[in-house]
Amino acid sequence: MSGEIMSTPGRGVYGLRVHGLDGVTELPPADGATLGWATVRVGQLHLPPPPPVPLDDRRGTRILADGRTLAVDRLRGTATFYGPPLAPDVLAHPYLAPVATTVNRWAGRETFHSGAFVLAGRAWAVLGPRTAGKSSLLAALAARGLPILTDDILVVDGVDAFAGPRCVDLRQPVPGVGLPTRPVRAGDQLRVGLPPIAPRVRLGGWLFLRWGATVTLTRLSGAALLARLAGQRSFGQLPSDPAALLSLAVLPAWELTRPRDWAALDDTHRLLVDAVTATSAVGATR
């Protein structure tokens, strides 16, 4: 594994230089734009795992939902999965996510369970609970020509957001999207491949998803946004810079309501484009 680190630049994803996953095609190669990023070496051992250790500012070992154990060591710069070997498709997502959130929180960045798309030169975060339809909305936006920055984990440094793996995973096909998919994760999900994108994009604002009878956007106050962000950042037991959260809470934010009806995707797309375009125009005149 050390020979690989010496001979390859690794993969540049989630604001990290990741070594040990050069065979995972959804992870773009690291390049000059990723210089200075935190580095982590991901490995797998089919051996008895170490006992769980609560996450602190140096290390953490925890049992994952499938029974595997993940051990992350800050000083060594390693993340090790214990258990049967993982296929490349699941290493891209979801298994890289807990590694990325841990290492980025150690690096002083904030991470959220969020996707993001790019419009008007800015990244717009999409947050919501597990069944809020984040990935289906992102896939629909991708089909309408909007670049997707990340599907599931959003890493921010100041007001810059980092690109995730080049894929969106869906539980079921989205009618009318027209994007090619392939089965992944033992056939449980459909994966939409994404084209390359800049490794970091300035964050423009926030969208919180909820289901409702009609397609509407409701602007959130800065105080309401700050409370939501403080409660939804990853690993709240690790310290955060209050000034960093405040800088994120001054960005525009909306609650996006839409019905559980695929036919509402066109109206949702139009509403988002109109709101973001108007907000960007106002910001450009200031």
* DSSP summary: helix tally: 6
Radius of gyration, in Å, reads 19 Å
Which outline best applies? globular
Report on the biggest sheet.
Answer: 6 strands, mixed
Strand count: 17
Instruction: Describe the oligomeric state of these chains in a short phrase.
Output: single chain
CATH topology type of the largest domain: Rossmann fold
Residue stretches low in confidence (pLDDT < 50, at least 5 long) are: 1-6
Structural account:
This protein has helices at 2-7, 88-106, 134-143, 222-232, 242-249, 265-285; strands spanning 11-13, 16-19, 38-45, 59-63, 69-73, 78-82, 110-119, 122-127, 148-150, 153-157, 160-162, 167-170, 181-184, 189-193, 200-211, 216-219, 253-258. The protein has 286 residues and is of the alpha+beta class. The chain has a six-stranded mixed sheet with strand order 1-2-3-6-5-4. A hairpin with a 5-residue loop joins strand 4 and strand 5 (69-73). It is globular, with a radius of gyration of 19 Å. The N and C termini lie far apart (51 Å).
